[in-house]
């Protein structure tokens, strides 16, 4: 889909531009907001990025995916627009699962809820979208960035590292924390249905 | 035999390996140990499944639609950028 839109964009097709923006505006805003303190600055960084795309589209050689290229431009713009202190790379040392769920031997104290054995309706993605969106927005910035790029946008680990300028090891730790947290929130909510 | 293997790795430790496992970042030895634990431990199997479901559900988070107004503004911006570029 991107490939066709990009070739139309190269030919100055306004509709192609609007479609690309419609596709990526929200993910970009979410990423930018996690990098800068002011929402206005985040919006500016996103707009700057689009301007950069329109002006630099001929320089995009397709060696990376368009998505990776786009998010990289955004991260650069947001950084120069006054990114927060480099997010703590040491990351929190919180365990993936609440320690009280384990007994003294480190085994699960109580059986886990088997999500998938419940009705299919419970696994209906639409039901969880509002909760997931807000949980995603509540993640610490670095975790949010990684989970968004990996699990929402479908970038590979290498691509996410390239976009964010972080090591493979850090990327995995951030992904681990982020996914663990989202699982915890879903698990707490599963009981309500 | 399985019970012994299960004790090799505490559940508390196993859950911390899940992402590295899914990312293919465990050494062969670590992976075998993890897989042996998960085979023997229904709770950790359920946990791994929950993480997989979490990933799947997160993948369904779609960007919200732009309003018609926003689309129109974008079209105007685009025309302006293009004309500035042409100068």
How does the helix and strand content of chain A classify structurally?
mainly alpha
CATH level-four homologous superfamily name of the largest domain in chain A: Winged helix-like DNA-binding domain superfamily/Winged helix DNA-binding domain
- What is the overall silhouette of chain B? elongated
Radius of gyration of chain A: 19 Å
The general outline of chain A is: elongated
| Low-confidence segments of chain A | none
* Distance between the amino and carboxyl termini of chain A: 37 Å
Order of helices and strands of chain A: HHHHHHHH
Order of helices and strands of chain B: HHHHH
Give the CATH level 1 class of the largest domain in chain A.
Mainly Alpha
Number of alpha- plus pi-helical segments of chain B: 5
How many strands, what sense, and barrel or not for the largest sheet of chain A?
A: none
CATH fold name of the largest domain in chain A: Arc Repressor Mutant, subunit A
The number of helical segments of chain A is 8
How many structural domains of chain B?
1
Fraction of residues in helix of chain A? 55-70%
- What integer is the average pLDDT of chain B? 86
Q: Tell me the total number of β-strands of chain A.
A: 0
């Amino acid at each position: 889909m991107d490939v066709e839109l990009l070739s139309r964009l190269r030919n100055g097709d306004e509709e192609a531009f609007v479609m690309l923006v419609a596709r990526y505006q929200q993910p970009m805003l979410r990423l930018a907001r996690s990098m800068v303190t002011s929402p206005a600055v985040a919006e500016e960084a996103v707009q700057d990025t689009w301007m950069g795309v329109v002006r630099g589209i001929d320089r995009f050689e397709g060696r990376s995916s368009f998505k990776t290229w786009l998010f990289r431009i955004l991260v650069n713009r947001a950084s120069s627009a006054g990114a927060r202190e480099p997010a703590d790379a040491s990351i929190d040392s919180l365990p993936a699962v609440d320690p009280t769920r384990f007994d003294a031997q480190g085994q699960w104290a109580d059986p886990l809820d088997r999500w998938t054995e419940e009705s299919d309706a419970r696994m209906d993605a639409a039901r969880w979208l509002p909760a997931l969106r807000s949980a995603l927005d509540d993640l610490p910035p670095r975790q949010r960035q990684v989970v968004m790029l990996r699990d929402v946008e479908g970038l590979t680990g290498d691509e996410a590292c390239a976009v964010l300028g972080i090591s493979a090891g850090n990327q995995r730790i951030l992904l681990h924390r982020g996914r663990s947290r989202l699982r915890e929130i879903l698990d707490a909510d599963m009981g309500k249905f | 035999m399985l019970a012994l293997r299960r004790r090799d790795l505490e559940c508390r430790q196993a859950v911390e390996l899940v992402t590295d496992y899914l990312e293919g970042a465990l050494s062969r030895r670590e992976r075998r140990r993890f897989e042996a634990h998960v085979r023997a431990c229904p709770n950790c199997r359920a946990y791994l499944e929950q993480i997989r479901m979490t990933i799947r559900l997160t993948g369904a988070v779609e960007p919200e639609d732009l309003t018609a107004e926003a689309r129109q503004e974008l079209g105007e911006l685009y025309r302006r950028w293009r004309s500035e570029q042409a100068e």
